[in-house]
Specification:
This protein has 330 residues and is mainly α. The chain contains eleven helices and no strands. It is globular, with a radius of gyration of 23 Å.
C-alpha cells in the first residue's frame, strides 16, 4: 500500500478519521430520508426506492468497515456494537436487491441459452448431430418452465425480503441504529490515541487490512482447469472480496478515493459472487420435487452456464490483479 499523502501525515488521527465517519453518517441519514419517502409497498422495486436502499447499504458498509479497521482509534465497545448493528441492517436491506438481481440474471441467461446452441459447459455427447438436436430441443422445452419456476421461487423470496426490510426499518432496533448514526454525524467517540499523529495511529491498521487482502488472494486456488465446477472454492473467493472491500475503504479514508488499481479486480469479484449465487439458485430449483425432466435439464444447463461465468470472473480477476506475484494466472 502506498503511504498516505502528506495531509494525513501532518494531521492527527482524529482530524482524518472523524470527518470521514461524519460524512458517511450524513450519507446514511440522507438515504434514510429517501427510504422513508419511498417505502410504500407500491414503491417496491422502483428506481427511487432502490436508490434509497442502496445509499443506506453503501454508507452502512463504509461506517462498519471503518469501525472494524480503525477500531484502535475509536471507543471500542461503541465501535463493536454499532458495527454489529450495521452489519445486521445492511444484510437485511441487501437481500431484496440480491434476489431481484439473481432473478434477472437467470432469466436473461435462460433466454440466451434457449435461443442458442448448447453451452460449452456441456461436453460433446459423441453421438452425432441428432443427439445434440434432441438436447437443444429439450432445452427449448424446459427453459420456459424453468424460468417460471425460478420466477415463482425468487419473486416469493424477494417479497419476503422486502417485508423483512420494512419490518426491520420500523423496529426499535433500527431506530436505535439510526439514533447512533445521527449522533455519529456530529460526534465521533474516539479513543485517547486519536489525538496522536495519523501516521502513528492509522497507517498500521490500514496496512494490516491490505496485508490480509493480499494473503487471501495468495491463498486462492491458482487454476480451476482440473476441477472447473469445484464450488468448494467459492468461499475463498468471497473472503477475498470482503477483504478487498475493507482495504478499499481504508484507502478511501486515507487518500480520499478508492485505489484505482483495484476497481477492475473488485468488479470481477462482484461478478463472481453474483454468478456463484445464481448457480446455487439454479441448483436449488433443480431439486424441486416432481419437476419435469425437461425443466430439470434446463436448470442443469443453466447451472453449468453460471459456473462458466464464475470461472470467467476468476479469469478476469487474475488478468486485472495488480499484484502479479500474489496470484497465479490461469
Amino acid at each position: 500500500m502506498r503511504r498516505p499523502d502528506h495531509q494525513t501525515t501532518t494531521l492527527t488521527a482524529e482530524a482524518v478519521l472523524a470527518p470521514y465517519l461524519r460524512e458517511q453518517a450524513a450519507s446514511f441519514l440522507r438515504g434514510l430520508r429517501l427510504q422513508r419517502e419511498h417505502s410504500a409497498p407500491a414503491d417496491a422495486g422502483t428506481q427511487r426506492a432502490d436508490e434509497a436502499a442502496r445509499a443506506l447499504r453503501h454508507a452502512a458498509r463504509r461506517i462498519s468497515g471503518t469501525l472494524h479497521t480503525f477500531r484502535g482509534a475509536l471507543e471500542p465497545v461503541w465501535a463493536d456494537q454499532l458495527r454489529a448493528e450495521l452489519a445486521w441492517l445492511s444484510g437485511t436491506l441487501a437481500r431484496e436487491h440480491a434476489y431481484a438481481t439473481r432473478l434477472g440474471r437467470l432469466l436473461d441467461a435462460l433466454h440466451q441459452l434457449s435461443g442458442a446452441s448448447l453451452p460449452a459447459a456441456r461436453p460433446p455427447s459423441g453421438e452425432g448431430a441428432s443427439e445434440t438436436d434432441k438436447e437443444r430441443a429439450a432445452l427449448g422445452v424446459g427453459a420456459a418452465r424453468a424460468g417460471a419456476l425460478l420466477e415463482r421461487r425468487l419473486t416469493l423470496a424477494r417479497t419476503r425480503a422486502h417485508s423483512a426490510a420494512l419490518q426491520a426499518l420500523g423496529s426499535s432496533r433500527f431506530h436505535a441504529v439510526a439514533d447512533a448514526v445521527a449522533l455519529l454525524a456530529s460526534e465521533v467517540p474516539l479513543s485517547p490515541s486519536a489525538a496522536e499523529p495519523a501516521g502513528l495511529v492509522l497507517h498500521a491498521p490500514a496496512e494490516l487490512a491490505e496485508q490480509r487482502m493480499l494473503d487471501a488472494v495468495a491463498a486462492l486456488p491458482p487454476d480451476e482447469a482440473v476441477e472447473p465446477y469445484n464450488e468448494a472454492h467459492d468461499a475463498l473467493w468471497h473472503q477475498a472480496r470482503q477483504l478487498l472491500r475493507l482495504h478499499r475503504y481504508a484507502h478511501e479514508l486515507l487518500r480520499g478515493a478508492p485505489d484505482p488499481a483495484l476497481v477492475g479486480p473488485g468488479h470481477a469479484l462482484d461478478l463472481h459472487r453474483d454468478a456463484a449465487e445464481a448457480a446455487a439458485a439454479a441448483s436449488a430449483a433443480a431439486r424441486t420435487p416432481r419437476i419435469a425432466p425437461a425443466t430439470a435439464y434446463a436448470l442443469g444447463v443453466l447451472h453449468a452456464d453460471q459456473r462458466h461465468e464464475v470461472e470467467a470472473a476468476r479469469g478476469v480477476f487474475r488478468e486485472t490483479w495488480p499484484h502479479a506475484a500474489a496470484v497465479t494466472a490461469s
